TrEMBL record, chain A:
The chain crosses the membrane at residues 35-57, 63-82, 89-109, 121-142, 154-173, 223-242, 272-292, 304-321, 354-373. It is found in: Cell membrane. It comes from uncultured spirochete. GO terms for cellular component: plasma membrane. This is Putative Ribose transport system permease protein RbsC. It is a multi-pass membrane protein.
Automatic annotation (TrEMBL), chain B:
This is ABC transporter. The keyword ATP-binding applies. InterPro entries: AAA+_ATPase, ABC_carbohydrate_import_ATPase, ABC_transporter-like_ATP-bd, ABC_transporter-like_CS, P-loop_NTPase. SMART domains: AAA. Keywords: ATP-binding, Nucleotide-binding. Transmembrane segments: none annotated. It comes from uncultured spirochete. GO terms for molecular function: ATP binding; ATP hydrolysis activity.
Length: 377, 253
């Protein structure tokens, strides 16, 4: 049956309005597939030439460190988007986890500090984490049950959780107040680097040399923030699950054809519930790590649009909101594109408003490329 | 000798409507039976009873002489009764092996404890089953979306065959295809018959029916209006059975 096969070349010709000959060449296909990566490199070159502060290992690590939440949220969003859904609640699950973790640590730490039988600090931290992580599963469970059992469209189901999580967070945070009072040891975990090199004297791992104070910390070369380990771990695990396991195959199958998935015996409802739970849990991990980075429980400000930025990163990274398509690696590139755009514009002194314009333009390009080349990823 | 699949006195009612009324039929190994009839004649309902979508109100189903109970599509599949519906139920965003093994992926262990999908095994098994059916698909890695209608049909058939279908039910297999693709699907049906698979085809196309079927069962308003061996009948006779003999007689007067 080879004769009737529609070759990729023909498909591209039909599908790419004005694509011309270029996009049928190997280089053309490569650049269409990796446009976000190419754009990322071009941005790095432009920002490096445009300012002396951008091309710097400290700045690059800063970008990575500050993008931890974005990496995790985008990875969470990708799982849901591949199944053909969308999760609008992850941004507020993020805030809920951060604030709840901080609140639990605050109460335990204040109650036990100095007093007889006081709770060890590690126990305070562990209980705070446990509370934050276990609660962050619940919005996902609710989303999954609403989507599967009650046939609520994902947009609406997760929008409900968006509101509920926001409300609970603000209740816990006594209105718009960051939650202070967690043990300061958490900062040491969240903000440390793997390697500290004092060029003249010493090398140490995971903690700065004791003779260095916060004031002269910049004289030490710090390499590989702990946050990078977390981001890499989450991205690698989810990438592995999506790419290599049955769970991943089923995720793509559900997004590609719900009907085919059901008829091939996949327990689609159970699978979708698990997807929403994992997405919610990963968002909770991200929020908890935000607490470790900042030392305070931060509610998600209204207008932060974390969930929409996650959707943007996922789409720039080659996923399609119609489902069935998208990879972790692409999503990571999407996050970096947005992060470098923000950081670079700040450093060269362009108004932050342009960032929103940039995101809008990039999203449009992403969708046009997705439509024009349905088989690239 | 017992028939491979035999349905006896099947009746199915939907409220006041009797969709299938006391119909019996059978199909043997290596035999192609065509099920024809006008829209609403009860063909699809009968097929859905065999494939486990509907439960019959009355009647029995036998496989190799043994009575079987088909309560769900999974039951039917576990008895080796596979159904290929018109929409094929393929995941268009995935490649050929992933579709043939959809929901039943082969895995292997890595690092001693992690189960990963064994793509190489699935790929070589897919190649084997496609070769066995003489289906040519240039690259197994192409997504279903990039295949022609006939190739998709072939992938859906291969999936059923790979999972040891003994009875293959095909609902309008050529309906959405171009002329040359139709021919290839019919060739594929013939080659399946040679391999001993029992095939039930629903079709509106008299040409298809007469080119591949051994036997034709005509349904009309829920009853079996007639059953003919292809070699003993003609298009005219089948059409007259489909529309109802009276109207044909009237026209000829």
């Amino acid at each position: 049956m080879a004769a009737e096969s529609t070759s990729n070349g023909e498909r591209l010709k039909q599908g790419a309005p004005g694509g011309g000959g270029f996009f049928q060449t190997a280089i053309g296909r490569f650049s269409a597939r990796n446009w976000a990566l190419i754009f990322l490199f071009i941005m790095i070159v432009i920002f490096s030439l445009g300012s002396s502060g951008f091309f710097d290992i400290v700045n690059f690590q800063n970008i990575i460190h500050l993008s931890t939440g974005a990496f995790l949220l985008a990875a969470a969003e990708l799982l849901v988007v591949i199944t053909g859904g969308i999760d609008l609640s992850i941004g507020y699950v993020y805030g809920l986890s951060s604030v709840l973790g901080a609140k639990v640590m605050q109460i335990l730490y204040a109650g036990g500090a100095g007093g007889a039988g006081s709770m060890p600090v590690w126990q305070v931290i562990a209980l705070g984490c446990l509370a934050a992580l276990s609660v962050s599963i619940l919005p996902g469970l609710a989303n999954g049950v609403l989507v599967t059992r009650f046939r609520v469209p994902p947009f609406i189901a997760t929008m409900g959780m968006w509101g509920i999580c926001n409300g609970i967070t603000l209740f816990l945070a006594d209105g718009f107040m960051p939650v202070m009072g967690a043990p300061s040891e958490i900062n040491a975990i969240g903000n440390s680097y793997f390697l500290y090199i004092d060029p003249s004297k010493s090398i140490s791992f995971f903690a700065k040399p004791s003779y260095i104070t916060q004031a002269n910390i910049r004289s030490v070369l710090r390499l590989v923030p702990n946050s990078l380990f977390l981001s890499l771990a989450v991205l690698l695990v989810l990438g592995f699950v999506l790419g290599r396991t049955r769970f991943g195959k089923h995720t793509y199958a559900i997004g590609g054809s719900m009907d085919a998935a059901i008829r091939s015996g996949i327990n689609v409802n159970r699978h979708l519930v698990m997807i929403y739970v994992i997405a919610s849990f990963v968002s909770g991990v991200a929020g908890l790590f935000n607490l470790f980075q900042t030392g305070i429980g931060n509610y998600t400000p209204s207008g932060a649009n974390y969930e929409l930025m996650a959707v943007a990163a996922v789409v720039i990274g080659g996923a399609s909101l119609t489902g069935g398509k998208g990879r972790i690696l692409g999503t990571a590139v999407g996050v970096l594109v947005l992060a470098v755009l923000e950081n670079g514009l700040q450093i060269i002194g362009v108004s932050a408003f342009y960032r929103y314009i940039g995101v809008g333009v990039l999203l449009t390009i992403a969708v046009i490329i997705d439509r024009a080349f349905p088989d690239l990823f | 000798m017992a028939h491979l699949l035999e349905a006896k006195n099947i009746t199915k009612r939907f409220g006041g409507l009797t969709a299938v009324d006391n119909v019996s039929f059978h199909v043997d190994e290596g035999e192609v039976v065509a099920l024809v009839g006008d829209n609403g004649a009860g063909k699809s309902t009968l097929i859905k009873i065999i494939s486990g979508v509907h439960k019959p109100d009355e009647g029995e189903i036998f496989l190799n002489g043994q009575e079987i109970h088909i309560d769900s599509p999974i039951d039917a599949i576990s008895h080796g009764i596979e159904t290929i519906y018109q929409d094929l139920a393929l995941a268009e965003n995935m490649d050929v092996p992933s579709n043939i093994f959809l929901g039943r992926e082969r895995t292997k262990k890595i690092l001693g404890f992690v189960n990963v999908v064994d793509y190489e095994h699935m790929s070589s098994e897919s190649r084997k089953v496609l070769d066995r059916l003489d289906i040519r698909i240039p690259s197994l890695k192409s997504n279903i979306r990039n295949l022609s209608g006939g190739q998709r049909q072939a992938v859906a058939i291969s999936r059923s065959i790979y999972w040891n279908a003994k009875v293959l039910i095909m609902d309008e297999p050529t309906a959405a295809l171009g002329i040359s693709e139709q021919k290839k699907v019919l060739e594929l049906v013939s080659s399946l018959r040679k391999q001993g698979i029992a095939i039930i085809i629903i079709s509106h196309q008299m040409y298809d029916v007469f080119s591949v079927a051994d036997r034709i069962i005509v349904m009309r308003r829920g009853i079996k209006a007639g059953e003919r061996l292809v070699k003993d009948t003609s298009t005219e006779e089948i059409v007259s059975l489909i529309v109802g003999a009276e109207s044909v007689e009237k026209r000829s007067q």
